[in-house]
Structures are given as C-alpha cells and as structure tokens.
Amino acid sequence: MKSDDANRENRVTEVPAEPKDSASEKKLRVLQVNKMYYPATGGVERLVQQIAEGLNERTDMRVLVCRKKGKGQVDTINGVEVHRASSLGVYFSMPVSFSFFRQLRSMSRDCDVIHLHMPFPLGDLGILLSGFKGKVVVSWHSDVVRQKKLMVLYRPIMERLLKRADAIVVATRGHIDGSAYLGPYRDKCVVVPYAVSEYLRRKAEESTPKQYIPGAPVEFLFVGRLVYYKGCDVLLRAFAKVPNARLTMVGNGVLLEELQNLAEELGIASRVRFETDLPDSKMAVAFENSDVFVLPSVERSEAFGLVQIEAMAYGKPVINTWLKSGVPYVSLNGKTGLTVNPGDVDALADAMKKLAADPALREQYGKAARERVQKNFTTELMLDQLMKVYQW
Known about the structure:
Layout: H1 4-13, E1 29-33, H2 43-54, E2 60-66, E3 73-77, E4 80-85, E5 90-91, E6 94-95, H3 99-108, E7 113-118, H4 121-130, E8 135-140, H5 148-164, E9 167-170, H6 173-177, E10 189-191, H7 198-206, E11 218-223, H8 232-239, E12 245-250, H9 256-265, E13 272-275, H10 280-289, E14 292-294, H11 306-313, E15 318-321, H12 327-330, E16 337-340, H13 345-356, H14 359-376, H15 379-391
Helix pairs in contact: 3-4, 4-5, 8-13
GO molecular function: glycosyltransferase activity
Keywords: Glycosyltransferase, Transferase
Enzyme class: transferase
C-alpha cells in the first residue's frame, strides 16, 4: 500500500482523467480574473490571454481585469470580451479599484467557474465578498516575496481564498515544494505546465537553425523586465568575464539606466545591446539569432520563467538558476542547459564560458530543449488539462 505522502504526490501531479460531466453540450461560463490584460506585458498577462483566446470557443469566456489608471471600459480582443475596471492607479504592484468589487459580483452571478490568477489580493477579496457559489480555480504563479509587511494584512484573506478554492493550478512541482504557503493545500494542487505562445511556436518551427561560424562571437540573450529579482546585474558582471561574446538584453524597467551605467563601468558597453521594446516579429528574430538564452533570476518571484520555453522552442540551450520555484523544472540541468546558484557571478560566468566554447554541446542541449517543449509545453496540452480542471 502506498504511503500518504506517495498518494498526496500523485494527487499533486495528476490532472483529472475525465470531467464529471463530459457529455454535457452546454458551454461552461468562465470568468478569468487577473490584475491586467493585453496590451499590458508580462508572463502572466500573456498566459491569461493564451487561455482566454484558446478556450473562447470551448467555453463562454470573459475576462475581468483593472485599468492601470482611468475609467472602466469593455474591449473585445481577438473575440474575447475583456472588462477593465476603473482604477486610481497602481501602488505596491496593485491596482486601486473600488468598482472592481461591484463588477466581479455582477459578472459572477451567471458564471460556472471563476479562474483567478494569484497573487492578486483584490481578486481574493472580491471573490470572498461576491457571494459566488460556483467553482473557484486558482492559478498560483508565485508567493509574495518582497512585500513581507503587506503579507501581515493579506495572508488571512489569501488563506481564506485558498480554503475556498476547488482547485489550485501550478505550472510545476517546484511551485508547491518551494512555496511557503501551499503545503496545507497540496491535495488541491494540480500541475498544468505553461505553454509557448502559438505565434512564437509557429515562428520557431519556420526558423532555420543558426549556422556555427568558427571564431564568430557567441550571442547570449536575456528577455524580461529589468527589475530586482531578474538578476540582471549578476548577468552583466558574469558576462564581463566571457571573451568573444555579445549580449542582447530585451526588456524595460526601473533598473534600465542603472544597468546601462553598470555596463559602462565594466567596460562591456560595446558588447551589450539594450532593446527596451520589441514587437513579436523582432522578438522572434532575437531568439533565432541567439546562441544561448540566460535567465539569471535571483528571487522566488521568478516562479517559472515563461521566456525559457520560448527560447527552448527555438532550440536554444538555457542557463537558469537553482531557485526554490518552478524555474529549474523547466530547463533541466545537464539536459537542456545548465543551472547555477542564484547570485553567483563566477558560476554564471563559468556556465556561459562553457557553452560559448562548445558549439557541439550547445547543439545537443538545444535539440533536447526543443523536444522538451514539443512534448511538455504545448498550448493544446495546457488547454486540454485546464478544461478537465474546469469540468472536474
């Protein structure tokens, strides 16, 4: 007989095989709730859009988010009805919106499922106050790591919402094992891996493998917001130790000027290119032209690193970090790339130098990376598993 721990592990990692009412022809009415939606950028925002557009024909899907600032509005984006509650602005990464509660209560009245993306304290409180009696599915993207003082106020609300939830969706086992909060709710957790966007998947399939040119500089690529937990300063310091290489950093954020100044101080400004805003078409070119993708994140705020699977879809090896989150579960050390301790400049530099000096290893890891994406991180798989969770 299996132990309780073994049984619990199975419940964590398995998606329900069949929905309870799979024969029903009635479309489920689903309300997806998040802070923001396209054109706001970010991994979670891209995921919410993927789910909304991907399940729009299989469900009656609507989305409720907030404006960054301004009056509320309703948009239809690629066939998805998106309601944006008015907001006084964003403070501590949280929109301040009073109309959000009224809209959530009104929109939930005829819903079968509310799918909330956490952390989003406004959403937690809104669901608890709405009187909603249907199914609540929570996508747990990360713990709140930095705003520890605010957690004193938020945690009781968060705990009530997690107790209320019917299912907690996580992208990897690492989200559970590395969380300070999910342990008591492990039996509710279901692993549903994220997926590379359909646009980048198609572009990746159409792309031509980069040809190795002896003596040419090795192209390293970083994509992400320029914020504290991304470890961009560590990346620049490590890159300064890597000869005959170039680095492209795609992203914007509060640390942009500081990082540009650091590149100057390290004497590598001529080898580092900052791209603050790239459309999808040019982003695809950046992936195609790179040799190695680097995700040097230093805090558990980086819960998955969606850009990893985007790079892997292009057959690029990934250097990531041993965070207590889902990050090292995506690109696997010694199989699809290399994993180093977060914040360790020398270890990151050694990994970069190792891949820079070995084109055969880059090709080996890159091929395995693309195969891993095709097997584990497809949109079809993600959407099918989510539908089972909705119907379970």
